[in-house]
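Q: Hi! Curious about what HPP family protein looks like structurally. Here's the sequence.
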Amino acid sequence: MTTSASDASTSKSSPLRRALAFLAPGLGAFAAIFAIVQLGAWSGALLLMAPLGASCVLVFALPGSPLAQPRSIVGGHLLSTAIGLALQHTVGFHAWSAALGVGLAITLMQLTRTLHPPAGADPLVVMLGGAAWSFLWTPALLGSALIVAVAWAFHRLLRRPYPQRWR
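A: Let's find out. The predicted structure is below.
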């Protein structure tokens, strides 16, 4: 079973500290998604897509994971969204193009050291929604960058190291 960094550090602490350690990832995810939705409403831009919720699981519950680092979050979402858009706008949605999109996303994320499991869903989101090329900027780039920014601030507030590395 995989545990978060906060689990190990709270095994001998007070019940209140343990409770706060388990609540912190949820509070961080709340802050990130709330900020994204509010900024989107304020700006009129689409900043939210479902895979960003899964990105929050990694960045707030397992912030030390290589999969939760800024390069993986932003790069993974950008690359996978671009793959989905390219397929959507060249061949359209088919069973084989949806499967190819996910397979290519995984392969290219591995090759570019931007592996981020939630981004594996991006080609499907793009193709099922018939997204325009602007989807690459909002929500993929801006939404993932906002997750990283909120995570950075949140972990600093809790005096936890994040990110472990920028590249």
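A: A fun detail: The first helix runs from residue 5 to 9.
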